[in-house]
Amino acid sequence: MLDGKKSLFSGMQATGTLTLGNYLGALKNWVSLDPEEYKCFYGIMDLHSITVRQDPAELRRRARDLLCLYIAAGLDPEKNCIFYQSHVSAHAELAWILNCFTYMGEMNRMTQFKDKAARHADNINTGLFTYPVLMAADILLYQADFVPVGEDQKQHLEITRDIAMRFNSIYGDVFTIPEVYRGKLGDRIKSLQDPTKKMSKSDENPNASILLLDEPEVIMRKFRKAVTDSDGEIAYSESKPGIKNLLDIYCAVTGCSVEEALNEFGGLGYGTLKSRVAEAVVAELEPLQQRFRDLCKNKDYINTVIKNNAEQASYYATKTLRKAQKKVGFPERIR
């Protein structure tokens, strides 16, 4: 706990443009958290981003856009700490210490490394291999009680817990052992073109994902092209993944239950379902998009947020880092 509150950490990489899946599965859940109950830290994870080669100017632009999207989605930077990972040097410093308490066998079992190495065979770098240790540092620096994670990140949280418990067993109570935080919304949003896979900003098919900054006509077109099936029945079933995905999106955006959605669409065709889901998504995203455009114009405000939140994150992260440094035997700093 920090400042008498439960601590929560999460973040997203500063690559690509966020999708509707990112918004419904993460951002909207973050916004719903009570800042009086949780001390929340949300990173723009630009250190993680460079495990894959990035255009420097593009990475800087996307990092700033991501910060603006966090705020546009409803995260108040006065009540939540929103910061660039690269602006808090404790992340890299603690990652090195934790690397020395992590075993090669544990890293070899990480499925995401295998997946990313297969996709980037020309750049299988050490950072890609030790990515989970940096993620562990991200979480442990803020003494996080909870970490919102999807199915694909559970393995990383497990190794974070293993590293923290190993360190604590040697040096005492240094790190909080984090638990999974399960959001209520949208953690099942799938690709519009392959509803057996999650919606991803890295999908090569441009019609597979709704991007948060897509224009309304683009959103409508993508939903019209969404994969369904041929029997014409609107039902919520694992055997009908395309229809199930559309219903999940509709429920997550409107707040209605699956039963209510089925009653609304009962007897209607797939075309009507796609149109109404698209309209609901457009209505949800238009205010966010306008706030994003306004924030991008307000450079002084965003610069102030960047500076103040980096200082706040550094304060808490450095407290944990100094404790870990002392425990492993590093010389005390002379003030």
Report what the structure shows:
The protein folds into 2 domains: 6-182 and 299-328, HUPs (Rossmann fold); 216-294, Tyrosyl-Transfer RNA Synthetase (Orthogonal Bundle), CATH 1.10.240.10. β4, α8 (154-171) and β5 (179-181) form a beta-alpha-beta unit. The mean pLDDT is 93. It has helices at 20-32, 46-49, 56-72, 90-99, 104-108, 111-119, 126-140, 154-171, 216-224, 241-254, 258-265, 270-297, 299-328; strands at 6-13, 38-45, 81-84, 146-148, 179-181. The strands form 2 sheets. It has a 3-stranded parallel β-sheet. It is mostly helical and 335 residues long. The chain starts with 5 loop residues before the first strand and ends in a 7-residue tail after the last helix.
Strand content: 5-15%
Radius of gyration: 21 Å
How many strand segments?
Answer: 5
Give the strand order, joined by hyphens, for the main sheet. Answer: 1-2-3
- Principal-axes geometry comes out as globular
CATH uppermost class of the largest domain: Alpha Beta
What is the end-to-end distance?
Answer: 28 Å
Mean pLDDT: 93
Main pleated-sheet profile = 3 strands, parallel
Helical segment tally? 13
What's this, in brief?
The chain is mainly alpha-helical. It is built from 13 helices and five strands. It has two domains: 207 residues, Rossmann fold (3-Layer(aba) Sandwich); 79 residues, Tyrosyl-Transfer RNA Synthetase.
